[in-house]
Amino acid sequence: MLLMGDNDSRRNALVDSLVRRGYVVSSSVEKAMRRVPREEFLPDSFREDAYIDTPLPIGDGQTISAPHMVAIMAERLDLAPGLKVLEIGAGSGYHAAVCAEIVAPDGHIYTMERISSLAEFAEGNLRKTGYSELVTVIFGDGTRGLPEKAPFDRIFVAAGAPDIPEPLTKQLADGGALLVPVGGRYYQDLIKVRRRGNRFEKENLGGCVFVPLIGEYGYH
What is the phi/psi pair of residue 56, to 5°? Predict the structure, then answer.
């Protein structure tokens, strides 16, 4: 029986489960999820629940994604060392940390957060866990993207959008990939967009549930 305080054992047991269920496939995603301490990206009152495969509240009406959804997105992004990645919706910083493990040592994650208190929370969590050199947290409207750092090899959105935000497709590098949940406020389809020159190929990866994407090119 695992002790509640034994976070390393609980983390490994969760990842073992994600591997068995087919959410974690690649060695890079498996290694990243075994290394990043999810409990350090949660409010104190939810640390004991860190290795239950479920979304959890992080304040301001927002949630940290369930580990299986983080695994799905990391796998579908086809991350590799050296890539420049833009995340929309920093939350507590956990998802960015997982991606940072994979793009290290020469890649970088830029993560945008529209809620200032969460941007500060994420920045603090990334600093204390040693990811601050690989991840830059930016307070702002993520639906506009980050044109001054574009183009990006990968872009992913951790909130549900009414449609694919146009600035994000424009900021995608040729050959790059974008993941964005598209649909209603309470249920979406995870859409993968691959840029081929001036063409954008879309693939529906199935249903998902995210908090709404708020901003100029999202919900208002």
Answer: -140, 150
Give the mean pLDDT of the chain: 95
Give yes or no for a contact between 116 and 93, defined as CB atoms under 8 angstroms apart. Answer: no
Catalytic residues: 65
Which range (4-8, 50-54, 213-217) has the least confidence?
4-8
Q: What is the DSSP letter of 61?
A: T
Please state whether the peptide bond connecting residue 37 to the residue before it is cis, i.e. omega within 30 degrees of 0. no
**End-to-end C-alpha distance for the chain, whole angstroms:** 47
Q: Where are the domains of the chain?
A: 7-208
Query: 153-211, pLDDT tens digit by residue?
Result: 999 999 999 999 999 999 999 999 999 999 998 899 999 999 999 999 999 999 998 98
> Residue 76's closest CA among 130, 120, 23?
23
- Superfamily per CATH, domain 7-208: Vaccinia Virus protein VP39 (3.40.50.150)
